[in-house]
Every structure is written in C-alpha cells, then in structure tokens.
C-alpha cells in the first residue's frame, strides 16, 4: 500500500469520525439541548441518544452563571438553580442606607423561551433581582426590614416570578442573606437593646417584688386569722373550763352541805355542839370588814321583841284609822319597837349569811340563890 492510499484512508476515517461527532449527541439526565435547523428552532433534544443532520442541525448554546462566572454551554440544566448576589446599597423609607445581600432559587421550565425570549438569562435575573430588592426595601422602614424578612422574601418572590414567567423561568424562593446597617445605627441599636433589657429586668424585678409583697400580706392575713381563731378557741376552752370548775365547786359545796345537814340531823347534835359550830362560823365571818355580830344568847330576846313589835304596830294602825286627820307622833315605845325590829332584821340577815339557826334556849328554873 502506497502513501497515497494511506492518506486517503486516514482522511475517510477522520471524515467519518467528524460525522459521527456532529450527528450523534448524548444528552445527560435532567438536561436538554435546543436544536436549530438551518438557524431556526427545530426541536428540544431530551436525555439519551439523539441524531443530528450534519451541517443542517446545530445545538443552540446558553449562557449560565456558575458562582461568579458566566459559562456558555449547549446543555440546558432543568434542575433548580441557585444564584447568590453581592450586597447592594439600598435606602429605606426612613432614609437609612444599608447593604443587603440576597439569594434567589429558580428553575427553567421552558428551554426555548429561556433562549429566545431573553438575550442573557442569568444577567437578566441578576439585574431584575437587584432593582426589585431596592424597590421593596425602599417602601419599608428600618425596623420593618429587620423584623419582617419573611414579608420581604414573599414580595420579592412574587415580583420576580411574575417578571420571569415569559422567560420560561419559575422563581421558587428568594432569601435575604444579610442586612448590614451603618455603624452608627448598630451602636444605637445596641444601646436600645441594652435599655430594653434593663427595662425588662426592672419590670421583672418590680413584678417579683409585687408578688412577694402580696404573698407576704396574704401570709400575715392568714397568720392573724389563725391566731385570732386560736385565741377564740382558747377563750372558749377557758370559759368552758371555768364554767365546769364552778359547776363542780357548786356541786361539791351542795354535796358537803347536804352531808353536813344529814350528819347533824342523823347525829342529833346537842346545844353544845351547835354552839361550837356557831363559834367556828363567827371566826370565819370575822375575817372580813363591815360585819355585824349577834350573840347566840340574844336570839330568845329577839323573839320577844318581835312579838312586842307586832303589838305596837297594831296599836299604831288602829290609832291612825281612828284619827286620820291628826298628825301621829310616834311614842317612845314605838321608837323602841322599831329599833328592836331593825335589829331583828339585821340578825336575820346575819343568820342567812352563814349563821346556823339555833333553837331558843329554854329558861333556867329559879333556884334558892335567885330568891
């Protein structure tokens, strides 16, 4: 085989290899390839083996962003993509400058639209996100941007999803990665946070003191109530004990009096024994002041005086009935009878106070010496 034949064979093999490379395309899973025929959209090659006509069919490249770089590729990735943006300067509604960083998640649902409806899909999404982020943050105050991130995320996602729908892109999620206010605002926020924490601490301490005072007052109230109930029960118990003691003492005195009376009655005491009892009673009565004593021998005389008093009183009443208009002048005998009567009343009172009733002494018969 001469050299010309070898060269011809090599040329044929190279041509066949080029034809195979340009005609046969293998598309990976979750990726597609947009095929143009003579410069016009023809079809979307899905994953697997695809045959293209050489010099007639050609894939359309797409520019995608990977990290911070833009890359061109003939494969369109249908998986959800993430695109992070650097911090951008925004101005809030209350004129506070801050830096905000965001992250967007999107997915290509129509590769043809993503290639033919927008020139550079990645750059368009980036600029659209930044401009809408400034618009949304400009309508909120500083406190709202710091406390309402979920609201900002929802509003951004709705705006971007509506704008990218004609590009064949579905925005699934938007997140604010970071919010950096100025240093002066940070210092003011730190002071505000410190003051708020101190206020909460004071409020908590005041509430604790209030609760402690309430509990202490309730405890004192309950203690006083229990103390009062205990004193009341003690007074009731003392009163009942005193009542019981008085009743027992009275019962004891009554029983002693009864036994003494039965002993005297059953023993048939002589006058000498009664006189001795009379003397003991006088000794007991002499222990106090303002006492009046009547001798034992005067009882018979008192009986006679009582009889005279009745006689004189009858005579005086008769005189009053006979001469009612005249003023009655008491006689000496009447005055004597009244004095003796008063003495008899005092004697009866002393007898009731504790002096036993003694029968009158019988008169002694006259003797020769008396004659």
In short:
With 371 residues, the chain is an alpha+beta fold.
Percent of residues in β-strands: 15-25%
Helix/strand-derived category reads alpha+beta
Instruction: Figure out the total of helices.
Output: 9
Shape, per Cα inertia axes = rod-shaped
Task: Kindly report how far apart the N and C termini lie.
Answer: 216 Å
Order of helices and strands: HEEEEEEEEEEEHHHHEHHHH
Largest sheet: 4 strands, antiparallel
Low-confidence stretches: 322-329, 343-366
| Rg over CA atoms | 68 Å
Average pLDDT taken over every residue: 77
Helix content: 55-70%
* Total DSSP E strands: 12
Structural features, described:
The chain has 371 residues and is an alpha+beta fold. It is built from nine helices and twelve strands. A hairpin with a 2-residue loop joins strand 6 and strand 7. The longest helix has 85 residues, at 183-267. It is rod-shaped and about 190 Å long. Mean pLDDT is 77; it is low at 322-329 and 343-366.
What distinguishing features does this structure have?
four-stranded antiparallel beta sheet, 371 residues, 12 strands, rod-shaped, 18% strand, alpha+beta
Helix-strand layout with pairing:
Layout: H1 3-23, E1 24-27, E2 31-37, E3 40-45, E4 48-51, E5 57-59, E6 62-66, E7 69-73, E8 76-77, E9 81-84, E10 88-91, E11 97-108, H2 111-116, H3 121-138, H4 142-147, H5 149-164, E12 169-180, H6 183-267, H7 271-285, H8 298-322, H9 332-353
Antiparallel strand pairs: 1-4, 2-3, 2-5, 2-8, 6-7, 9-11, 10-11, 11-12
């Amino acid at each position: 085989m001469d050299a010309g034949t070898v060269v011809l064979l090599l040329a044929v093999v190279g041509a066949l290899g080029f034809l195979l490379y340009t005609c046969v395309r293998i598309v990976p899973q979750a990726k597609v390839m947009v095929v143009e025929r003579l410069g016009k959209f023809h079809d979307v090659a899905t994953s697997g083996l695809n045959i293209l006509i050489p010099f007639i069919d050609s894939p359309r490249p797409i520019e995608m962003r990977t990290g911070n770089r833009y890359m061109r590729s003939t494969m369109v990735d249908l998986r959800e993509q993430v695109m992070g943006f650097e911090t951008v300067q925004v101005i809030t509604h209350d004129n506070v400058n801050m830096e905000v960083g965001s992250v967007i998640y999107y997915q290509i649902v129509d590769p043809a639209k993503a290639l033919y409806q927008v020139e550079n899909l990645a750059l368009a999404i980036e600029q659209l996100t930044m401009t809408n982020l400034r618009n949304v943050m400009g309508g909120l105050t500083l406190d709202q941007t710091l406390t309402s991130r979920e609201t900002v995320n929802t509003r951004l996602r709705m705006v971007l999803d509506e704008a990218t729908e004609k590009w064949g892109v579905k925005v699934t999620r938007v997140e604010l990665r970071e919010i950096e206010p100025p240093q002066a605002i940070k210092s003011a926020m730190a002071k505000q946070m410190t003051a708020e924490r101190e206020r909460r601490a004071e409020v908590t301490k005041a509430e604790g003191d209030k609760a402690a005072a309430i509990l202490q007052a309730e405890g004192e109230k309950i203690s006083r109530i229990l103390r009062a109930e205990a004193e009341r029960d003690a007074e009731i118990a003392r009163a009942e004990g005193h009542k019981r003691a008085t009743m027992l003492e009275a019962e004891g005195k009554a029983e002693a009096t009864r036994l003494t009376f039965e002993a005297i009655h059953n023993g048939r005491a002589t006058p000498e024994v009664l006189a001795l009892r009379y003397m003991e009673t006088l000794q007991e009565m002499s222990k106090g002041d303002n006492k009046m004593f009547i001798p034992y021998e005067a009882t018979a005389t008192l009986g006679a005086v009582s009889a005279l008093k009745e006689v004189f009183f009858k005579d005086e009443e008769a005189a009053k009935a006979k001469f009612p208009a005249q003023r009655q002048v008491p006689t000496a005998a009447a005055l004597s009878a009244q004095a003796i009567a008063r003495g008899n009343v005092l004697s009866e009172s002393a007898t009731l106070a504790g002096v036993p009733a003694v029968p009158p002494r019988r008169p002694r018969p006259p003797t020769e010496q008396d004659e």
